[in-house]
Amino acid sequence: MPSHRDIERWHAPVRARSLTVAHGGLVYAVAYDPDAAQGITAQTTNALAFLDERLAEAGSDKSRLLQVTIYLQDMTMKQDMDVVWTAWIGPPENWPQRACMGADIGDNGTTLIEIVAIAAQA
Questions:
Q1: 77: which of 40, 55, 87, 88 fits an S-S bond (Cβ 3.0–4.6 Å)?
Q2: C-alpha distances in angstroms, 76 versus 12, 72, 92, 110, 119?
């Protein structure tokens, strides 16, 4: 029977949360723009760089992504977000199953994007 010792956690700077969790060969990660830059293009770029870091610390990378859910503060930003996403994700062999949805992310509207991902460990 698995125990909590089989689970690796990389805690967030906020209490009671982890940015990344690894278990059973899978990585569960959340990413956002820690700088809350101006505009969806900058925030998407920064959030994807943050996701790269989260995946790397758990022994994975974007080529190992299985599923991604992208939450946008405003769905009218989806087209601009997709331009950055498409350049970042690379060739078709990297493409995970992906969903995108509008959500009230909080932070008084300063956080425009949050990304939740599941990837295989290398």
A1: 40
A2: 29, 9, 25, 16, 28
89-94: list long-range contacts, CB under 8 Å, 24+ apart: 89/62, 89/65, 90/62, 90/63, 93/63, 94/62, 94/63, 94/65
Tokens of 80: 């601009």
Domain count of the fold of the chain: 1
pLDDT in tens, 16-70: 999 999 999 999 999 999 999 999 999 999 999 999 999 999 999 999 999 999 9
Which range marks the domain in which residue 41 is found?
4-120
Query: At 49, which amino acid appears?
Result: A
Neighbours of 91 (CB within 10 A): 7
Could you tell me the maximum CA-CA distance found in the chain, to the nearest angstrom? 47
For residue 111, what are the CA distances in angstroms to 7, 15, 64?
29, 19, 26
| Token output for 30 | 């959340």
